[in-house]
Design a protein that fits this description.
The protein has 17 helices and 13 strands. With about 525 residues, it is of the alpha/beta class. Strands 5-4-3-6-7-9-8-10-13 form a 9-stranded mixed beta sheet. Strand 3, helix 9 and strand 4 form a beta-alpha-beta unit. Helix 2 packs across helix 6, helix 2 runs antiparallel to helix 7 and helix 2 runs parallel beside helix 10. The chain starts with a strand and ends with a helix. The relative contact order is 0.08.
């Protein structure tokens, strides 16, 4: 298909390949939209732009369904039930995109959009309280608003209905990532980098069953899970999605993100969070994917000293890492598995009883795989991160290998590439290499025979982990790669030395804190 150009009336152009297949399309669209932002803060503009993309999506979906109903003589194209029955939102006349586009240059466009959002919420129960409704505020530039409507009007314009909506979904997802990058640390509160989510999904392979995220952010884990099912020939209806989020604004983003992708999900919100008001207490999930906030110290642990979830030990009041791990384990089905993003310190910390909890988890044989990630992967923090994979049953009887008494360690710190000055990502090849190693170790059908690879991966028996005082840092187990030092570029050697030094400083700080605690305990007894 020939390349087309989407034009705004202000003269801006966004190149597309006609099917939205290249990242260049989304990137150029983002660049143009970002220029329209002017001096507006990304955290405010985020809701302006994403709200309009969402409105365009549901309007396009409605118009496509309406066209089909009009072609059917016996169907009533003005009956809302005809739309809701197929998970299509009913869009009143005053909220349809054509009405907004026709009035894009009117001074009252802000109020017209707000009225459209209110009308949609009034007719669609699941969207109540979700959509942004402050476009009429005096501080919002109405010329910019009109130009943004023009820009979004061109998305998927030359495509068939289903393809157009898919492109809108991809644009929404790309914009979420763009705003996360623009907001920096605050962006990490609602967005997990796409390549990390993709790795979790490719590792766990959530083909069928219940998927849960207790701190779901903007819903990226669910979007990637649905994509995985589609790409591997499964049926979307074979998975059920559940989540909880404590930040109301982020919950609204998740609801819109999932609606744009056509994902039917049970996402709960309360401001107390999953620890103190578990909205899905009875849920036992087949797959759990989560990126909890790192090292949270004010999680209210002092009010949860006795809780059924703390099977392996009471988590410290000053750090929620092991509370998250145990909450997630509590919600796993008998054959369930989980992938969790945590700070590197969780693999080795001995403070406040964390070492005892980790020992109990290892000895209970629920730790399946540990992955060390490269630095610079997250918008919200420069803290090095890792992935924990938990499994309720390491001998599930599905034709996979009996993995009891073993933990797979993968050191992926040398993988990934810089996408800008501050952030790295995994390539498709990186993800395939890591996930393929895990699948081979699990003994899945049609996989290669697993072999340890010095410097990258090793299947370690529990005896070795005990000898290492139940520390789960992959670098302790995988050894060094078989390569001559002279063959390694200086930049790589220097980066590795810096990383090793940072780890040693972190361990020294932990030991110092532990010594200080012990000294205080001795002083208290004198």
């Amino acid at each position: 298909m020939a390349r087309e150009v989407l034009e705004t009336k202000s003269g801006g152009k966004v190149k597309s390949n006609g099917n939205g297949a290249s990242l260049g399309f989304e990137a150029q669209l983002w660049s143009t939209a970002d220029k329209l932002r002017g001096n507006m803060e990304p955290s405010d503009y985020k809701h302006v732009a994403l709200g309009l993309i969402f409105l365009k999506y549901i309007s396009d979906a409605f118009e496509a369904k309406r066209a089909k109903l009009l072609a059917e003589e016996l169907a009533d194209a003005e009956d809302p039930e005809e739309y809701l029955a197929e998970n299509v939102f009913w869009v009143p006349k005053e909220a349809r995109w054509s009405h907004l586009q026709a009035n894009a240059k009117q001074p009252s466009i802000g109020k017209i959009i707000d009225d459209a959002m209110l009308a949609i919420e009034a007719k669609n129960e699941s969207l109540k309280g979700v959509l942004p409704k402050d476009y009429a505020r005096p501080t919002l530039n109405k010329v910019m608003l009109g130009e943004l409507i023009d820009l979004i009007s061109g998305i998927g314009m030359a495509e068939e209905a289903d393809r157009s909506r898919d492109i809108l979904g991809r644009v929404y997802e790309y914009f979420l990532g763009g705003f996360a990058g623009a907001e920096g640390k605050r962006g990490g509160e609602f967005y997990t980098p796409r390549s990390v989510v993709r790795l979790l999904v490719e590792m766990l392979e959530p083909y069928k069953g219940r998927i849960y995220d207790p701190c779901c952010g903007s819903g990226g884990m669910f979007v990637q899970s649905e994509k995985f099912v589609e790409e591997h020939g499964g049926r979307i209806g074979d998975i059920a999605v559940y989540g909880q989020e404590s930040n109301y604004t982020t919950w609204r983003l998740a609801k819109m993100n999932l609606a744009v992708r056509g994902i039917d999900a049970d996402i709960r919100w309360n401001n107390e969070g999953s620890f103190h008001k578990d909205e899905l207490q009875d849920l036992k999930a087949d797959y759990i994917l989560a990126n909890p906030p790192f090292n949270i110290s004010d999680w209210g642990g002092d009010r949860l000293r006795e809780d059924a979830r703390w099977k392996f030990g009471v988590p410290p009041v000053g750090n929620a890492n092991y509370a998250w791990l145990q909450h997630i384990h509590h919600h796993l089905a008998p054959n369930g598995s989980a992938g969790v993003v945590l700070a590197n310190g969780s693999m080795s910390s001995g403070q406040s009883g964390e070492g005892d909890i980790r020992r109990a988890m290892v000895e209970a044989d629920i730790v399946d795989c540990m992955i060390a990630l490269p630095g610079q992967f997250f918008y919200s923090t420069q803290i090095p991160a890792c992935l924990w994979f938990l499994s309720r049953n390491k001998n599930p009887g599905t034709g996979w290998r009996d993995r009891r008494g073993e933990v797979l360690f993968i050191d992926a710190r040398k993988l990934g590439h810089l996408v800008d000055r501050t952030r790295r990502e995994f390539s498709d090849e990186d993800i395939a290499r890591i996930a393929g190693t895990y699948h081979a170790w699990r003994g899945e059908p049609d996989t290669a025979t697993y072999e340890d690879e010095p410097g990258f991966c090793r299947a370690a028996p529990l005896e070795d982990i005990r000898e290492n005082n139940h520390v789960l840092t992959p670098g302790r187990y995988v050894g060094a790669a078989a390569v001559e030092a002279d063959d390694v570029p200086f930049e790589e050697r220097f980066a590795a030395l810096k990383e090793t030094l940072a780890e040693q400083f972190a361990e020294a700080e932990e030991l110092s804190a532990l010594i200080q605690t012990k000294l205080e305990e001795v002083g208290a007894h004198e």
